[in-house]
Write a structure and sequence with these properties.
The protein has one domain (about 5-175). It is built from six helices and no strands. It has helices spanning about 5-20, 30-40, 45-65, 70-95, 100-125, 135-175. The protein starts with a helix and ends in a 10-residue tail after the last helix.
């Protein structure tokens, strides 16, 4: 039988994933925060990596079904890079299981943003051959042109990470059912 704590964790992860369907500034979504949060709080590695990716997949199916062909032609080839980036972020988030200090959480969110930027822009360079030449200069151009998107992603990642981790930490302190058995 799932505990109230586990039910709330699942609901927070699902809500974060589905919030991508709401209007938001470009590249400012809670997905990195969700991947870190799930990895930090869910006890099983399989669950902590699988649940955010599954929630993201459901959101992607809905997004792809409701968008035009131009959106699909850009995003579908990039899906593997995006999912790889979030799986790596989830693995990094496992380091937060033992210590969730504010500095460590902010550091992981920042590192997650940087990794996402590096992996997905590399994917753009590799997949969209007509946009960038297959040279080091082409790759650098791809990263430079991606910088405006990185700013929103970093701000969103830090903000949503603060909301998820900070909100849940407050609940753990004030609601006894949200504490783990060894923290009671």
């Amino acid at each position: 039988m799932p505990t109230p704590r586990m039910i709330l964790l699942f609901c927070l992860i699902a809500a974060a994933a589905m919030s991508r369907l709401l209007p938001h500034p470009e590249n400012m979504t809670p997905i990195t925060a969700m991947a870190l949060f799930a990895a930090a709080y869910l006890p099983s590695r399989r669950l902590s990596l699988g649940l955010p990716l599954a929630a993201m997949f459901v959101g992607d199916v809905i997004l792809y079904a409701t968008r035009d062909a131009a959106y699909q032609s850009v995003m579908i080839p990039m899906t593997a890079c995006v999912y790889l980036a979030f799986a790596v972020i989830g693995l990094l988030g496992r380091w937060l299981q033992t210590t969730k200090s504010p500095a460590r959480v902010v550091g992981m969110a920042t590192l997650g943003s940087v990794l996402f930027f590096l992996l997905t822009n590399f994917g753009v360079w590799a997949v969209f051959t007509e946009s960038y030449p297959r040279t080091l200069s082409g790759l650098v151009d791809c990263y430079i042109l991606g910088l405006p998107f990185f700013r929103n992603a970093l701000l969103g990642d830090l903000g949503y990470t603060a909301i998820l981790f900070g909100g849940f930490a407050l609940l753990e302190r004030t609601v006894p059912q949200m504490r783990t058995a060894n923290a009671s």
